[in-house]
Amino acid sequence: MATPAAFQPLNAQSIQRTLSTKTFGRTLHVLDEVASTNTHAAALALDGAPHGTVVVAETQTAGRGRLGRHWHSPSGKNLHCSILLRAMPAREQQPLWLSWIPLTAALAIGRAVQVVANLKVSVKWPNDLLIGDRKLGGVLCESSGVGTAHATVIVGIGLNVNIRRDEFPEELREIATSLAIESQRPCDRTALLAALLVELETRCESLLAGHHGDILKEYMLRCSTIGRRVRIELAHGEQMDGTAKSIEVDGSLRIIRDDRTTVDIRAGDVIHLR
Ligand code: BT5
What is the rounded distance in angstroms from the CA atom of residue 62 to the CA atom of residue 244? Predict the structure, then answer.
């Protein structure tokens, strides 16, 4: 009997047959094992790989999150992929554009999951994908040469698809989830990757055309941080408690602190407090 699509290894031909993108994934590298898809994509970028090149791997031996944290990437279960962006706005608009890329990627993942798995995913600012309070996936964007004519951005996406609860390491078991855990059925990773790439491509085009306002509106609808009591963990171990009020035009998170002062956070870890 044929193996159901959900359990098939990722395969470049099937992915490309399923793609409905213009550029994203048209140059595609499907690997069994890699240290990190982001690192691999960065090396390809140095070799001149085109805009929209995608690297996807069954497993990563050194998958990473932000600030060098480890990303659990067991073989054959989930999605680990990186997309190389070369198309970007004029230099002076690049910083604003760049600050929206991780948020845009999170939106694209949320929409793709809704379309393919019929599950409601929220975004914890800036780019954690949650179902309920559990982490389904994350985004790691790495840029180089911003402000020059040779700028590149690598959008790295990790998404838990078919991993079972008992396959997570103990420290993640209570805080992470997967599509299969939530829907109690396996999900076809090829269909999910194809959906994700088309959702991301559309939003990247919109961002490039300067439509930050549309992305902001969509983000506010999907963001579960707004209206919550939050603790912000800043660099150097500093902390700040308050209520998340809104997302600002540059993608930062506006917090009203307990002393009623307002702060806009551009980078940091957010904890949703009860
Ligand atoms: C992220 O970092 O959430 C971004 C993760 C991006 C991973 C992708 S995979 C493809 C590409 N190539 C790479 O090398 N990376 C990208 P952060 O917000 O720092 O969250 C990291 C934290 O999430 C860890 O410290 C763990 O607590 C938790 N974690 C690790 N693996 C997880 C998993 N598979 N599912 C849910 N949570 C996980």
Answer: 33
140 lines ligand 1 (CB under 6 A): yes
Residue 165: both structure tokens together: 């609860």
Per-residue pLDDT of the chain (274 residues; tens, 9 = 90+): 567 777 789 999 999 999 999 999 999 999 999 999 999 999 999 999 999 999 999 999 999 999 889 999 999 999 999 999 999 898 889 999 999 999 999 999 999 999 999 999 999 999 999 999 999 999 999 999 988 878 899 999 999 999 999 999 999 999 999 999 999 999 999 999 999 999 999 999 999 999 999 999 999 999 999 999 999 998 888 899 999 999 999 999 999 998 899 999 998 899 999 8
To test ligand 1's pocket by mutation, which of 38, 53, 71 has the most ligand atoms within 8 angstroms of CB?
A: 71
Per-residue burial over 229-250, b = 16 or more CB atoms within 10 Å of its CB, e = otherwise: ebebeeeeeeeeebebeebeee
Nearest C-alpha to atom 7 of ligand 1 is from which residue? 158
Residue 94 CB–ligand 1 contact under 6 Å: no
Cβ(66) – ligand 1 distance below 6 Å: yes
